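Troubleshooting entry. The earlier prediction with zinc ion gave an output that would not parse, so I re-checked the input for stray whitespace and re-submitted. Clean input:
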Amino acid sequence: MIFIEFAEFEIEKVIMARADHDADIVEFITDLAKTEEIEAGIFTAMGALKNARLGYYDQEVHEYQELKIDEHCEIASCVGNISILEGEPFVHSHAVLSYEDGETVAGHLNAGRVFASEIHVQVVDGPKVERKHDNVTDLSLWKFG
Ligand code: ZN
């Protein structure tokens, strides 16, 4: 039997924000979610970072490996969502970053020092989206209330 975890939402509003120079992009989006009381949303971001920390989840040992990016890069693409983890808004973000020569690196975005960035958040209205520990993956995955 296949059990599909899903729920339907309406777009409540769209927030466009400019992240501060030198802010951490993940912290910025998290602070925005807390300030605007966003419990569920999806976002995209673009711009440039001074450095970044990407994650890669090792599916065998159930741990994140960290990839340190200490070069200036473009945010070629950044997508993510906001849901609730342990009662607080939690940002889950992935990014494709590009270097001067156009080469790219990508992964789970843990952190990134902003040079300049534009963030677009679609706040959604619907069931509560909470992250709960999943025994199979050892990750905090969505449960819809
Ligand atoms: Zn991820």
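This one parsed fine. Residues 25-35 form the longest helix (11 residues).
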